[in-house]
Each structure stands twice: as structure tokens, then as C-alpha cells.
Amino acid sequence: YRQQGLIGLMPKIRSDNGSSRTISHETIEEAVKLKDELPERSVSQIIAILEGEKKVPTGMLARSTLGRHLSRLGLTQKEAKQKISGHRRFAKEQRNRLWQADIKYGPYLPHPKNPKRKVRTYLVAFIDDATRLLCHGEFYLDQRRPVLEDCFRKAILKRGIPDAVYVDNGKIFVSRWFRLGCAKLGIRPINTKPYSPESKGKIERFNRTVESFIAEIELQQPKTLAELNQAFAVWVEEGYNHHPHSSLENETPANRFQKDTRRLRFVSLLKNAGTLSSGKQVAE
Predict the structure, then answer these.
(1) What is the model's pTM?
(2) Could you tell me which of 217, 224, 220 has the C-alpha nearest to residue 239?
(3) Cα separation of 263 and 94, whole Å?
(4) Fewer CB under 10 Å: which end of the chain, C or N?
């Protein structure tokens, strides 16, 4: 005021107005490239890629800060809130009390016998209701009984026998084989009400999470089912199962499952019988 009078009290425009003071222009450009390459990528996924490629130090980028800059550039969309009425949320309190299962469309691959053709893949997945852990998931080339049998067997051999399994009314889940197999293992099959996919909220949310994997893997264009499943296994173990989950108070599904003290029941594989037989109870 003494030097410039009233003019000296007027607010001054910053010389760096409109630019980032915490994120370099190079980092923003890299983030924009990743968003342009795959618009479905979330801010968290972009940060993970930048950190994984060593373009920014781990923990330096705040999700809110990068999101604000991308929003200023018109590169983000507000997520519509999904309201489900008439259904109560429920969750079992211990591991293996209840599993949820589903079959989801996967990416197309070159046909094994005719590479000029494309063939659809299908993801079969079993998740634990209490911990959100993916007990086992795998892509297959069809939706027939051997596919469900293979995935169910692998899930049980890795995580133990669940008390019950929650499935929809698809033909493969209401088959005599599936109910008979569950009965032999002491598993109670529970079917959802017709035309109510929201009743399987946890597996449906997992399916939406898998969309990010499918979008990324389609950029890599795997040539075989083995390549696809190898990439998915890495995504599950290094990503989903060991990534903080909002419904678990930011604890990871793997940690929540591991620290649960409920005893697990395992099984032995009977090759000749073509089924699983219940074994003794063991603690993890």
C-alpha cells in the first residue's frame, strides 16, 4: 500500500495460473495418453500404471489431484449411483459360509483350429461372500458341465469346502449333476429368484471389476486361452485379491480370508469317481 497505494492491495493473478503446481506437465500428458488409449480406465488405474512404469514415485500422485486435472480437461465422467430398492444387503461373517458363483462373457480369441475365426471365452468365478476373495476363476471356451466342474473343483481344492453356494437359475447351475455334487460334499445350493441379478450383488460387482482387466487385456490381444488365463491369474493375485476393498474397510480379501479363524474343510480328488469326496477338517 505504501509503495503502490490502493492498486497494491488488488489481488494479483498468479503467473502459473491454470497450470499444475503439484503434478508436472509431463505426468499429466502421460495420464492423458493412458486415458485416451482406453477411456474406461479409472484415475486409480492410471496412477497404478504410471507407478508401475516408474514414471512417478509410488504414493506421489493423489487420486483427487489427478482426477481434478483430468476433469478440467474433460476426460472424466461422474459415476452414476446405483440404487437398488427392495433388497437387503447381507454378508456372512465367516469365510466359506457362503460362496457366490457366476459365468461372465470374456474377450474373443483366435479359434484354436482356425486362427482366422474368433471364438468367445467365458469366465467362471467363485467368490467368498464374507471376505470377497476370489476362490478361483478361469476363462473357458464354452459353458458346458465339465467347465463348471473344473472350476468348482479347483476352487474347493484351494480354499476348502463352503457350507453353501449361491447361484442363478442358469441351466448349468440347476442341473442334476451340480446338485448331486453339492449333496455329496455337504454343500447347500441356493438359487436366486428369477429376474433378480441384484440379489447376487457381490459377484456382480466382481464382474464389473473384471471389466477393467478385460479392457486392458484386449489391448494386448492374447493369442491363446493359456495366455489369457496366465494374465488373469497375475491380475487376481497381484491385483484383486491383494488390493484394499472398500466394503472390507480397505482390508484386502486375501488378508481377511487368511486371518479368519474358522476351520477349513478340504477334500481329496477321486479321479475314477469323477467327483470330490469330503476329507477331514483342518485348520489353515
Answers:
(1) 0.68
(2) 217
(3) 10
(4) N
3-state SS record for the chain: CCCCHHHHHCCCCCCCCCCCCCCCHHHHHHHHHHHHHCCCCCHHHHHHHHHHCCCCCCCCCCHHHHHHHHHHCCCCCCCCCCCCCCCCCCCCCCCCCCEEEEEEEEEEEECCCCCCCEEEEEEEEEEECCCCCEEEEEEECCCCHHHHHHHHHHHHHHHCCCCEEEECCCCCCCCHHHHHHHHHHCCEEEECCCCCHHHHHHHHHHHHHHHHHHHHHHHHCCCCHHHHHHHHHHHHHHHHCCCCEHHHCCECHHHHHHHCCCCEEEEEEECCCCEEEEEEEECC
- Cα separation, 195 vs 122, in Å, equals 21
pLDDT of residue 83: 38
Strand order in the sheet with 134-140: 134-140, 118-128, 99-110, 164-167, 188-191
Residue with cell 514414471: 55
CA 198 vs CA 166, 228, 229: distances in Å = 13, 28, 27
- Please check the confidence at residue 165 and state whether its pLDDT lies above 60: yes
